[in-house]
Structures are given as structure tokens and as C-alpha cells.
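Long-time lurker. I teach an intro course on protein structure, and each term I like to show students one example going from raw sequence to a predicted 3D structure in C-alpha cell notation. This year I'd like something fresh instead of my usual example. Would anyone be willing to generate the C-alpha cells for the chain below so I can use it in lecture? Attribution to the forum is fine with me.
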Amino acid sequence: MAGSLACVGIGMTLGAHICPLSKSYIEQADVVFSAVSHGITELWLQEMHPNVRSLQQYYQEGKSRQITYNEMVNAMMTEVRAGKKVVGAFYGHPGVFAQAPHKSIAMAKAEGFAAKMIPGISAEDCLIADLGIDPGRFGCQQFEASQFMFYERKYDPSCYLILWQIGLAGDRSLAKFSTGAAHRQVLIELLGEVYSMDHQVILYEAAVLPIDKIRIESVSLSDLKHADIHMHTTLVIPPNQKMKLNEKLVARLAEIEQELAQ
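-- Reply from a regular --
Happy to contribute to a lecture. Here you go:
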């Protein structure tokens, strides 16, 4: 029997976000690999399938996450090559901030196996709902915090700026579970080139368990240095400028409309 791979998203909040298609893939699999954020979520998966293997075991403080991701891919691909229907169940969306699903699917397809990704409700989806942000109103730009720091990224302060994984901001080793105030100060200084130190930013954390409280905490940019930051904390920076009208382009469009009307 030819092996196959499906990487599915189970959403952010336990039991509330999984779609019927992802649930069906899990139930019909030969083996399920899980990468979830809470042990209770893993127990919940085990109620759906008797053979659930945790991918969390590959994480280790001081160990490069690139090695961890390769080990995750190898674990799943070993079973695919053995002819099994394999499912990787990932919290949130399996394609968002998750290297192993993308890499394993690409590898499986390159080797001739059927492979696909089933989307899930991501932290971004929860953030938009919980904070009442409409990306279509002012626009929205998103970056991984360390990448935002390491590279000269151009961003627009008239739209929302979302920085993911600020608990790891400034980590160049890919082997830490967190960085500290000194690293965060560098990020604050970088943002201070555009935003004032008293600009109000938002610390956001989605609910993982139904009993969890959503974290929506406003702090000034300067207070970010000593704020309580976790691996799953997201930084949301509201606009500090109004959108500037492109008068030349608008005038050109008006001319086109006038010509079409004649």
C-alpha cells in the first residue's frame, strides 16, 4: 500500500476549532504525529486515534530548532515510506510558523507520495477576532520578531504591525526557548525609530484551553522591556500615522473614469 501524508490544523482552542475534514483525516490515519501546545490537547487527540506520537519530544533547550524540525520530518517520512497513512496534527494552522509540515509535504511529493495540507484556525485568525482588527481597513503587516530585527524590513506605520514570537526576539542561535530584556531593548530601539516611546502597543495571547483567558494587555513601547513575555506572546502595534493619499494616482484614475464616461 502506498503511503500518504496529510498535515492538518487543529486550531488554537482545544476542541473548538478543528474542522470536520481534519478530524476525518486523524480518525482514518494509520499513525498520527502531534505537535500541540498543551498536554491536554494531546490527550484529546488520543481519544480520536489510538496511535498518537508526540513530536514535542524533539525540542530541547540548547538544541538548534533546525535539527528538531529535521527530526520531525524524518519521523513522519519514515512511516510514509513504510506505506502508512500518516497525519501530522499541528496546533493552529499547519502552514503558519511551522517548518516541519511544509518540508515534509514537499519531500513526500518529491518522492511520489500523496501529500496535502488542511488549514486550521491560526493565532492570526484569533487575534483578528479578539482585537476587532479588520486588516482591510488600514492594512496589516506581519513579521517574525527576530527576522524583523535581523533584516532591513520596510514597513508602513499607518497600518497595523504584528510581530510574532517576541519571546524569542533577537535569538540568533535557534536553540533558546526565550530571550530577555536586553534583547528586547534592541527591538524597542528599532521600533523607536518610527514610534514614540509612549505609543501604546498590545501584548496578545490566544486561548489554548476553553478555560483560558485571552490576553489583551496594552503597554507603552518603553514598558515592553520588562513586560511579562512568553513564547506564544504576540506584539501588536496600532498605527501611529494616518494614511497619506496618493494624489497623483487618484487624479490619474479620475481622468480614466472621465474618459470612459465620454
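Some talking points for your students: The CA atoms of residues 77 and 87 lie 10 Å apart. The mean pLDDT is 95.
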